[in-house]
Predict the structure.
Amino acid sequence: MGNGCSFGCHFGSPFTESLVSRKPGTVHIDYSVYTQRIFEDEFSFRLPRSSHEQVKVGFWIAKRELQASDLVFVKTFPQGRHVGVYLGEGQFVHASSSIGVAVSQLDNQYWGARYEQARRLSQSS
């Protein structure tokens, strides 16, 4: 995808730095739009607009198999989900309505209890 590099090779590279340095500024950015922009900007890959559609892209992977750039989905309320991008070492980056772009521990008390699934968009990772 994009530059020919499998998604997993971006951890520890400028990819990671560009993800965590993005700021939504004064304009609120929706979490699924944020992941859409990451994949478009970094990989020239167009994700669907909503997390409801993004969860259908790629293929399911076990939590223990997570690699940098996998999509991570968590259930935040009964009929919806939140999405972010896994960075490695148990962390993922996502857009939060309360604090903007954030890096969070996937296994902390809040996110760990709500983990739903992860998706990988490239089988060559």
The chain has one domain: 7-120. Strands lie at 59-61, 71-77, 80-88, 91-96, 100-105, 115-120.
